[in-house]
């Protein structure tokens, strides 16, 4: 058992150490959110409201709310706050998304995905 407190997160698989992630990107989105919160980009109540809103939007659009899409909503909430706070605009986020897709397409399964300048073309 660890001495650090865990953040109660309903619907997220956890073990004694904290959240358990299905994919590496989920852990990265989680870590980025905590880092941006720690830097003061947003308050935790602001984060919770934004995430809740993203989940409600998804449910209204037909998301079955099985938990499998939780981190997609998490990422949408993070991107929304980043754009609302002026850290990046939707165009920049789209550019990185497209570059990531390009990098993933050229990467062998199981190898780490690395962005290169040519991924942004």
TrEMBL record:
UniProt-listed Gene3D superfamilies: Nitrile hydratase, beta subunit
Occurrences of domain Nitrile hydratase beta subunit-like N-terminal (ranges) = 15-98
The record's InterPro entries line, in alphabetical order, gives: CN_hydtase_beta-like_N, CN_hydtase_beta_C, Elect_transpt_acc-like_dom_sf, Nitrile_Hydratase_acc_put
Tell me one Pfam family matched here.
NHase_beta_N
Protein name, please? Nitrile hydratase accessory protein
Look up and give the organism this protein is from.
Reyranella soli
Lineage, opening ranks: Bacteria, Pseudomonadati, Pseudomonadota, Alphaproteobacteria, Hyphomicrobiales
């Amino acid at each position: 058992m660890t001495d650090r407190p865990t953040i109660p997160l309903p619907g997220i698989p956890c073990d004694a150490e904290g959240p358990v992630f299905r994919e590496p990107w989920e852990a990265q989105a989680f870590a980025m959110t905590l880092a941006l919160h720690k830097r003061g980009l947003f308050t935790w109540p602001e984060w919770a409201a934004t995430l809740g809103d993203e989940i409600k939007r998804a449910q209204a659009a037909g998301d079955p709310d099985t938990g499998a899409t939780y981190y997609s909503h998490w990422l949408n909430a993070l991107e929304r706050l980043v754009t609302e706070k002026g850290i990046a605009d939707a165009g920049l986020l789209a550019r990185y998304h497209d570059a990531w897709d390009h990098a993933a397409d050229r990467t062998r399964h199981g190898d780490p995905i690395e962005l290169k300048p040519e991924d942004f073309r």
